[in-house]
């Protein structure tokens, strides 16, 4: 074999091995594919803080108590970077925010660790804290579903919005929560309305386009137009292996944040969620009436009672006066011609008809 032919064989061999290697990497990354139509029997989730699985099968990140933090991650990391290219990924989930205040909100999270150092409650969603906002070492990507307007460093102008966060909670892009109909009309969605809402997050590793779509589960099908469609390079954010999950927090105001179903996949579209199998979320009891409400109820009750008493007294006086003024016959008049009352004359003449009087 000549040196030139050997060189050609070597180049061909390396090309084939490189192709096989890339195929192997693709097969590994595309292997992350799971679906929870309910979390009742889930055993491969890491829960932290206030997160728990309710008896009905919902994954509750926080209840409606104050100053809570909770997050849940899929136990195994997903390989999201292959050969300096971010792997395409897709997720769909259904969430329910039952207001008691409202609370703060929740987020879908892709993070380098299941432990989020420095994370705090309230407006920081148990993702980050005031001291590490914007640090490149955070390696956190999140899609937030925020229900209150933040103050200070975050400077969020709309308290009911969907935002995309990169190593920070100052969103790179955000939109008021809503969805587009087929004719292009934007329908607003109140995130904390206690209605179940489905969300889709899709990232194309080739085009580096992120699409975020939401709609109430009552909407028959997924909206064709995403709420957010934005070019984002996640390579500086992602490490090779990242964890996927959810995070939520409450503050002085509180809501329960529940995930009812979840699917995720790398290298392809996430599996469709079976909406007929969604777990039921217990609704919180009605709050006790406020002092002003109690005062109003008592005042109205007193007015109604006094009015009823006055009406009853007036009716009794009318009856008494009617009885006093009624014409009564003396005993001697019963056997002789006597006075006739107006009522008797009226009845006898059929209302004083002329034909009767003639």
Textual characterization of the structure:
The protein has 358 residues and is an alpha+beta fold. It folds into 2 domains: 32-277, Sandwich (Jelly Rolls), CATH 2.60.120.200; 291-357, no CATH class. The chain is 20% helix and 30% strand. The chain is built from 4 helices and 20 strands. The chain has helices at 3-29, 291-325, 342-348, 354-357; strands at 33-36, 45-49, 52-53, 59-62, 69-74, 78-79, 81-82, 85-86, 89-99, 105-111, 140-146, 161-166, 173-176, 178-180, 186-188, 197-204, 209-216, 228-231, 241-249, 255-266. The strands form 4 sheets. Strands 1, 3, 4, 9, 16, 17, 18 and 20 form an 8-stranded antiparallel sheet that branches. Strands 2, 5, 6, 10, 11, 12, 13 and 19 form an 8-stranded antiparallel sheet that branches. A hairpin with a 5-residue loop joins strand 14 and strand 15 (186-188). The model is unreliable at 24-29 (pLDDT under 50). InterPro entries: ConA-like_dom_sf, Legume_lectin_dom, Leguminous_Lectin. Residues 32-279 form the Legume lectin domain. Keywords: Cell membrane, Lectin, Membrane, Signal, Transmembrane, Transmembrane helix. This is Legume lectin domain-containing protein.
Task: Give a quick account of the main beta sheet: strands, pairing sense, barrel closure.
Answer: 8 strands, antiparallel
For the record, give the distance between the C-alpha atoms at the N and C termini, rounded to a whole number.
148 Å
Number of domains: 2
| Record field, number of beta strands | 20
Number of helices: 4
Helical residue percent? 10-25%
Which consecutive residue ranges, at least 5 long each, have pLDDT under 50? 24-29
* CATH fold naming of the largest domain: Jelly Rolls
* SS strand fraction: 25-35%
For the record, the CATH architecture of the largest domain stands as Sandwich
Compressed to H and E, one letter per element, the order equals: HEEEEEEEEEEEEEEEEEEEEHHH
- Overall pLDDT: 81
Radius of gyration based on Cα positions: 37 Å
User: What spatial form do the alpha-carbon principal axes imply?
Assistant: elongated
- Estimated structural class: alpha+beta
Instruction: Return the CATH class of the largest domain.
Output: Mainly Beta
